[in-house]
Design goal:
The chain has helices at residues 2-29, 89-117, 139-142, 162-170, 194-197, 221-225, 245-253, 300-326, 338-351, 353-371, 379-392, 398-429; strands at residues 34-50, 53-68, 119-122, 131-134, 150-154, 157-158, 176-183, 186-193, 205-207, 213-216, 232-236, 239-240, 259-265, 268-274, 277-279, 284-286, 289-291, 293-296. By secondary structure, it is an alpha+beta fold. A four-stranded antiparallel sheet has the order 6-5-7-8. A four-stranded antiparallel sheet has the order 12-11-13-14. The longest helix has 32 residues, at 398-429.
Length: 430
């Protein structure tokens, strides 16, 4: 618990420091006086004045700030050298945008780094790309794929395993996937149009995954029942299990009632009784296991491409989620706050350094996007005012800015309180 708390403080302090460092460097670059650069919030523990800037280490470790001359309404002076208010709209925009930009850069560095240094993927990803069961009326069935077909190449690029196949399927430079398969030793070509996949239904084939447990979650029903890593699941409630995909189906069909799971441990067959637990986030019954994972890595070039693509996809999904949240197409209870972040950081820290780095990159990306929202009191709100100022051809009145800042700050505090309460309820229910 103590290590988790320390890790959370270090992670959040690092992300805030990077953010404020962006503002600081941009301000110095356009010759705006930086009065204070604080790591943490008051009261002060240590401070040192260097030139015009007081560098501060404060007691409350989560957070920090940069105070610029003229950024507060009470010390604005458009005629004073080094005053924020005296700078052009473009220069002020650079100062405001530099904070989120630094957080974007953290994500663009950390995510490729994790891929390059080694990341975990499901073990089946390194298996030959042999197609499993075909769903009825799926794209795969309509395109002429059969169970046991071996994927040989995709758009002319040979693939040796499912990981390479996924990489080729993620490329968007051609409208059609031309897939060469081997069936009974004979090569044949099949095609899938990307527009069909864009509907989100998937190809419609299953990948065969051996039902061997790779990990058992701490304090989960599976751990309490005695399941262990490398146990092979043979049956659930006397129904034979030959593929990992069958496990969830059988667990959901139990509707929370006790299930009898038979596993093969070494050469011994063992029967265990497990009571599934309801997961509020996924709205499903779970027992707390996952399939086997293996560590793999990519070349530097591929890591950069995959990492940048991951940043793009995460940004797109975040914006889509925000849109659905605003239009009430998703429940606001899905929003996480400080407690959820702390829980995620703790779990990642317990898993591996790479898991933690990956999560830090993800949180940094979310932090950047959130700060760019056009909400007064956030960087995005200030940028929005600059745009209005540009259109209007003059500065907005102090009264208007004071009022909107108060409203924005109140909304921000309400949002933080709301997501914190939601986090607390989730924690209590679990």
């Amino acid at each position: 618990m103590l290590i988790t708390a320390i890790t959370v403080i270090i992670v959040l302090s690092f992300l805030v420091f990077i953010h404020e460092l962006g503002h600081y460097l941009a301000a110095r670059f356009v010759n705006v006086d930086v009065l204070e650069f604080s790591i943490g919030f008051p009261p002060k523990i240590y401070s040192k004045l260097v030139g015009k800037t007081e560098y501060i280490i404060s007691l409350i470790p989560i957070g920090g700030y940069v105070r610029l001359k003229g950024q507060n309404l009470d010390d604005e002076d458009e005629e004073e050298e080094g005053n924020y208010a005296s700078k052009s709209i473009l220069q002020r925009f650079a100062i405001l945008f530099a904070g989120p930009l630094m957080n974007f850069l953290v994500a663009l560095i950390f995510l490729p780094l994790v891929i390059f240094s080694g990341y975990e993927v499901p073990a089946y990803m390194l298996n030959p790309p042999i197609i499993g069961e075909i769903e009825h009326q799926s794209i795969a069935e309509q395109s002429g794929f059969h169970e046991h077909d071996l994927i040989y190449s995709i758009n002319g690029q040979a693939v040796k395993n499912w990981k390479e196949a996924h990489i080729e399927f993620s490329k968007k430079d051609k409208p059609v996937f031309e897939i060469v398969i081997i069936r009974h030793g004979i090569k044949m070509t099949r095609q899938i149009e990307k527009q069909h996949l864009a509907k989100g239904k998937g190809v419609g084939w299953k990948v065969k995954i051996k039902p061997v447990i790779g990990d058992v979650s701490i304090t989960s029903p599976a751990q309490k029942a005695g399941l262990e890593t490398n146990d092979q699941i043979v049956s659930i409630n006397n129904q034979a299990v030959s593929d990992w995909s069958q496990i969830s189906t059988l667990i959901q069909s139990s509707k929370g009632k006790e299930v009898v799971m038979s596993v093969l441990r070494s050469t011994q067959r063992i029967d265990l009784k497990i009571i599934p637990k309801w997961n509020q986030e996924t709205k499903s019954w779970i027992i707390g296991i996952r399939s086997q994972m293996v560590k793999t890595s990519e070349s530097f070039g591929d890591s950069m491409v995959m990492g940048f693509h991951q940043c793009y996809e995460l940004s797109k999904k975040t914006l889509e989620f925000l849109y659905k949240l605003i239009t009430r197409k998703v429940n606001s209870e899905a929003v996480g706050g400080p407690i959820m972040i702390a829980k995620m950081v703790g779990q990642a820290a317990n898993n591996s350094v790479n898991s933690l780095l990956s999560l830090v990159g993800f949180i940094s990306l979310q932090f950047a996007i959130f700060n760019l929202l056009p909400i007064p009191a956030l960087d995005g709100g200030h940028i929005f005012f600059l745009i209005i100022e540009k259109i209007k051809g003059g500065a907005l009145s102090k009264k208007f800015r004071i009022t909107t800042q108060k409203i924005g700050f109140s909304l921000l505090m309400f949002l933080i309180l709301y997501v914190s309460v939601q986090d607390g309820l989730r924690l209590f229910q679990s």
